[in-house]
Amino acid sequence: MFKTVRGMRDLLPVDAEMMRHVEMVSRTISKLYGYEEIITPVLESYELLAAKTSEEIRERMYTFKDLGDRKVALRPEFTASVARLVVNKLKNEPQPMRLFSVGSLYRYDEPQYGRFREFWQANYELFGSDRPEADAEILILTNNILKNLGLKNYRFKVGHTGILRGILTQEGLDDSQQNSVRQLLDKKLWAEALDIAREADISQKGLETLERLLETKGEDALQVLSQIRECVKNYENALDAVDNLWRILELIKGSGTHLEVVVEAGFARGLEYYTGMIFESYVPGLDIALGGGGRYDKLIELFGGEPIPAVGVAQGIDRIVLALTKQKVSQKTAKENSVVVISVKNECMAKALELSNLLRKVGLPVEVAVMGRSISRALADANRRSAAYAVIVGPKELEEEKVVLREMKKGTQQTVLISGLTEAILSGSE
User: Could you give the CA distance from residue 275 to residue 69 in angstroms, rounded to a whole number?
Assistant: First the structure.
């Protein structure tokens, strides 16, 4: 008997419905904020996807040679594909450009709770603005998605890659050494990260600054930023990064949006292309990020385009579903006003099909009983499927232009005129 490939999943109807619900809310938010949807290939050239991702992700990409002997890979994230599209086809579009994409991604990770080899994300990218209001928009947008989905007690971990970069650059560490430090910090391997800095002959002042920074975090954002500012006062670029993050958080607060924020000076994300503000979202009891993103002002240039500043976020659809399930957040589904149409006799089936089309035209989800079962068995099946209503079409009622409408949950039924059937169902489901 065949099984799914390890790390891949079959999504049964209840799981698929939850996934599509999160996707629907994500797409609705994209429209409200002016993000236009694009669709990029699942398969890209290996060189594109490997160009500016982390070494860890490069090692975990699904790669192979196609029949043309080209090395290709399944996309492990969206941003490289979106950057390619911007460089090749959207470079002359007016800025800012707001782009939305959603779909499946692939990484050969060790399967575990909340981590799959095929996973889904909703991705938002804002190109053209280097201003803090663009960063603030991405954070506010993420907040709106999680709030609209009904998640509770979620919070944001926020940092700025320019703080560490400013220190390490001034201390003489090259890009490779800096990437190694950030990768270790992303895995919370602080001692190992400090060892890399020591091996790079960082000054004692720089080492002490890093040690202090790794201990600096808290929920009082402006107080923590004041502490970071004091800590990096001898590093000009790091100070600029602190001021930039301060301005972003002030804008969010001034907008009337309340975010539960933890500012963490030593926070790092795995991808190498980040240049500014970075963040991740979490819920209590689920020790994995629901989503994350940040600013990457040099990526388009690295892919051969003109310099275009950018900021974005990827929402983990699978992980958000896990969070919703853990918090037992329910959403209104089509089942709440769904209808099963049952024909009593074969000669009534054409009318049953006609009525089903009539109900669908007003947005009601309708199934027609097609198994030829008895009325009692057809009603039992409708109940098993959690239908809200059953419409029973019989020859006696049809003579009077009527049908029987049964409310499944209450077990009550009434005979109604066909002309009033839609109104009877809609008024009963309010």
Answer: 35
Calpha distance 385→380 (Å, rounded): 9
Positive or negative, the Cα torsion across 184, 189, 195, 198? positive
Distances (CA, A) of 105 to 27, 80, 214, 408: 18, 12, 32, 41
Q: Are 135 and 72 a contacting pair, CB within 8 Å?
A: no
Q: What are φ and ψ of residue 348, in 5° steps?
A: -95, -5
Instruction: Render pLDDT for 187-221 as a digit per residue (tens, 0 to 9).
Output: 777 788 888 888 877 888 878 888 888 888 999 99
Angle at 219 between CA 290 and CA 122, to 5 degrees: 20
| Per-residue pLDDT tens over the stretch 318-354 | 999 999 999 999 765 546 789 999 999 999 999 999 9
Tokens 């600013």, located at residue: 295
How far is it, in rounded angstroms, from Cα 288 to Cα 285? 9
Find the Cα–Cα–Cα–Cα dihedral 86, 91, 92, 98, rounded to 10°.
40
How far, in Å, are 12, 151, 298 from residue 137 at the CA level? Answer: 35, 20, 20
For residue 96, whether the previous peptide bond is cis, meaning omega lies within 30 degrees of 0, is yes
Q: Where do the structural domains in the chain lie, given as residue ranges? A: 13-326, 335-428
pTM over 0.70: yes
What class has domain 13-326? alpha beta
State the angle between helix axes of 161-170 and 236-254 in degrees (0 to 180), rounded to the nearest 10: 170
User: Looking at residue 429, what DSSP letter applies?
Assistant: T
Distance CA 183, CA 190 (A): 10
Domain 335-428 has CATH 2.130.10.10: no
Give the burial class of 160: count Cβ atoms within 10 A of its Cβ; 0-12 exposed, 13-18 middle, 19 or more buried. Answer: buried
Mean pLDDT of 63-76: 96
Using an 8 Å Cβ cutoff, are 354 and 405 in contact? no
Of the pLDDT bands very low, low, confident and very high (cuts 50, 70, 90), residue 54 is confident
Read off the tokens for 408.
């499944």
Task: Label residues 21-48 b or e (16+ Cβ within 10 Å = b).
Answer: bbbebbbebbeebebeebebeeebbbeb
Is 217 within 8 Å of 227 (Cβ atoms)? no
